[in-house]
Fold this sequence. Notes:
The chain is mainly α. The chain has one domain. It is built from 16 helices and two strands. 39% of the residues are buried.
Amino acid sequence: MKKYILTYFKGVAMGAADVIPGVSGGTIAFLTGIYAELLSSIKSLNWNSAKLLFSGKFKEFTNAVNLKFLVAVGGGILTSIFSLARLMQYLLVHHPIPLWSFFMGLIAASAIYVLKDTGKLTITNLLSLIAGVSVAAWICLVSPSQTTEAYWFIFISGAIAICAMILPGISGSFILLLLGKYAFVMKAVTELNIPVLLIFAAGAAIGIISFSHFLTWLLKKYYKPTLFLLAGFMIGSLVKVWPWKRVIDEVSHIDRPILPSQFELQTGNSSQLSLALLFIAIGFSIVFIIEFAAKSLKK
């Protein structure tokens, strides 16, 4: 029981990380020592375990999929998501510049965290990093800040975003930012928009079961290039979370980053530069505080 209570609180930490773009739930799982068990448990959700469930062999199914562990982790994640979504929704509306600045610090530090133990920089790894930066920056610049709210896109968003939960270094909220669906999903959670949440959850279920097998193979065969690619995605995504923007297409909701001074001239609002720098520093520090705390707990 103590093990599952502790696992629940590790899930709470993972959920908090996945609500905030920058800190990855996968990173928290890795730091708290449950990453391998999490990946193995998700992989066990396959056709063979489904046959055990549908044939009424509940005890065998529970053991086959490590159900107690998954329920403890999942319960913790859901607790955080529903607790923090309302706060994120409020901050996005009323304090966007400090919030985006905080996200910038988190994402920048997460990229450094992913790269710091990768060893020698080879040509392959460098190309992976450049590819990640280029693709993410391109997506951020050409993708609209608002995308369709059709159910098919919500399903796809869930399938893609949930995969980040089991990736060390990249968060599900970060993916939702790239897809232009972060604020929309946070609002759905806050307002308990059941149809949207069910569609998103269905996509997430399909995505995580399918992706866990691919991720295991990818990390086994191409571990370091994969990490460099993920770090590149995070560095390129800083374009998306840049706090000061100007809208260049009202219809498509496409915007571009601008300097704080230009923001003040064009909008007539304060750039809150000092506050922004403070929150960048806070976000940057949190990633390494989490790492230090996790290492101390292990010792």
